Amino acid sequence: MALTNQLIVRGNTCVYCQNKKILQKGLSELTISLFFILPLVPEGELNYNCLFKTTSMNKEKDMQNETNSNSPLGAGGIDENGYYGEFGGAYIPEILHGSFERLKEAFYAIKDDAGFKAEYYELLKNYVGRPSPLYFASRLSAEYGTKVYLKREDLNHTGAHKINNALGQILLAKRMGKTRIIAETGAGQHGVATATACALMGLECIVFMGKTDVERQFLNVQKMRMLGATVEPVTSGNMTLKDATNEAFRYWCSNPDSFYIVGSTVGAHPYPDMVGFFQSVISEEIKWQLQEQIGRDYPDYLMACVGGGSNAMGTYYHYLNDDRVKIVSAEAGGLGVDTGETAATISLGTTGIIHGAKTLLIQDEDGQIIEPYSISAGLDYPGIGPAHAFFAKSGRTKVLAINDDEALDAAFELTRLEGIIPAIESAHALALLKKEKATFKPDDIVVLTVSGRGDKDMDTYVKHFK
User: How confident is the model at residue 76 (pLDDT cuts 50, 70, 90)?
Assistant: First the structure.
């Protein structure tokens, strides 16, 4: 059977990628998130015009990746085909095939380009304010009986790690001659970072944001508008990050001359690799900062929160092949993993395809996406970056679900002990300290990334403060 130009549907299963019940009768949320809408799918085998014209949609390659899922990690853990073990790839609509090919070509051309790197690092130093401090949290360390160092991404210009990636991609967009930038955002930090970069470079900026997030992150919405961006509230689904991403991709399909700055290590190849690359400055700095402060360049533990996974990828990037370093990630447990009100993708997820990548996602037995929930707008995503799916499945990372109350307690604790108000996303990572306390030794070095500051979350904190 020739599969090059056709999407083959047998019953409710896509024969091409074998994803479990990927197509449903009616309009499937998962179908929508794959950038197209099919009419009612009757029983039997039907052919539709293929929207997945990409080398990643190759059954033999998928089988090879599953067989070699524990192969040695390359830079950032990715192979030459955009896979992290069995996860990743590029499941994209044909209308964007050319855009992705040009993006890959441009990105891999600049990765080792001295001129690009010089311009990028100059901006990181003199505009963002890097390096961000690696701060020894003495009172927090005393509380947990170990040595805790905080990587202070909250002190970056715009208040989070997101600016690292936004500036890298905006420079790439300019090299490609793009003048209109689009982005999705959940907590608003990526939206603010993108709007900031666009203002700096004089480019048009459109940010898609779920209506629920617009309301709970209104301060960031006002910042984006002040920076000159158009903020498009999204009213589909549960009106959060997934839905904003859907709308951004739909817009890109209609306007393929735009440049889409994806904010996390999600989506089709090369986005997970590209975002990880631009965020890798975090672990690059951690290495020399540890060397300066403690006389060695590696910690015993690395900790970060994961939603899509950009700050975590940046934190882990240069340590993925270092088995001296234990890596622990915090995902959003919401009201509890077993409550149905959660975003614990790695704990609950099964293999599927969302926003162009094969990864773990929260779905029911029919392949329908289950709407995620978290107190954190930046973590309530039903999927996970394919790299983090692979790291968890291969055992490279340990992933713990942190519920809302645990995150709030950790935020208030850091504020009380160290005078630092973290973003609610970062608070999920801070809650790992209590979860892992029994494993710490007094001389262990724990590096934990504070991905953002808590200004945007003050309404939430005030509401729950006791």
Answer: low
